[in-house]
Amino acid sequence: MQKLSERIGRGDLMAANCPSREVLKHMTSRWGVVVLIALEGGTHRFAELRRRIGGVSERMLAQTLRHLEEDGMVLRTAHDVVPPHVDYCLTPLGAEAASKVRQLADWIEVSMPRIAAQWEKRAS
Amino acid sequence: MQKLSERIGRGDLMAANCPSREVLKHMTSRWGVVVLIALEGGTHRFAELRRRIGGVSERMLAQTLRHLEEDGMVLRTAHDVVPPHVDYCLTPLGAEAASKVRQLADWIEVSMPRIAAQWEKRAS
DNA sequence: CTGTATCCCACTTGATACTG
DNA sequence: CAGTATCAAGTGGGATACAG
């Protein structure tokens, strides 16, 4: 598979059925970014993650974790006890992914003053 | 503004009204990634970009370009002639943004074999 | 040529209730 | 505790027609 930047302009770029599009969606989805970064801090349980992140519904957290698990970025470990106890942590692949999205997120935060300045300029 | 990675776990992270969330959405939207990378190749006209990218509707290309322009990443230059002639290119800020999303996209492409292997493992 | 306006649908997300 | 099921609401994106 060639790199994206080498395929630009050849018409087949990031087509709807391109598998990497799915991965990008999972990584940059509403909660994907935050889950990846939260798990950089170490292993966490479901409810613990939910509190740590804040504002995410059970449904969306479960869905986000399942997607990331399917992509091989999150490792889900269910201890067979009652009440249930499930741990989530990053795989080595997931750690790389988390690093990449954090670099992007951090760039945005650092650049926000410049972006906000542009917004105000247009508002005037 | 603190960096994202330093705000995790304090409850206010990436709230729905967080302005950086908007920027992230524009940069990682269906066509935002591709437009940014396409413009790394230099200045392009509207129809030229549309052909170069392929598969994007006029509506979505216009919307994507307008968002990126509002965020100060794309510079739109309209030459006042008939028929209309409009050029698009990256600003310095946009060039940084394009580099970041390309790094992420390239990582995904390079990592696709590992991800696809995980998909097949689950399918079995 | 470079868009805008309109309509429409699929998909994402959220709220709530329920279960093993 | 750790989810799933269901329903309601909002959003992103495409097709088409039209305008400056």
Automatic annotation (TrEMBL), chains A, B:
The keyword Transport does not apply. InterPro entries: HTH_HxlR (IPR002577), WH-like_DNA-bd_sf (IPR036388), WH_DNA-bd_sf (IPR036390). Gene3D superfamilies: Winged helix-like DNA-binding domain superfamily/Winged helix DNA-binding domain. Residues 18-116 form the HTH hxlR-type domain. SUPFAM superfamilies: Winged helix' DNA-binding domain. PROSITE patterns: HTH_HXLR. GO terms for molecular function: DNA binding. The keyword Cell cycle does not apply. Keywords: DNA-binding, Transcription, Transcription regulation. This is Helix-turn-helix transcriptional regulator.
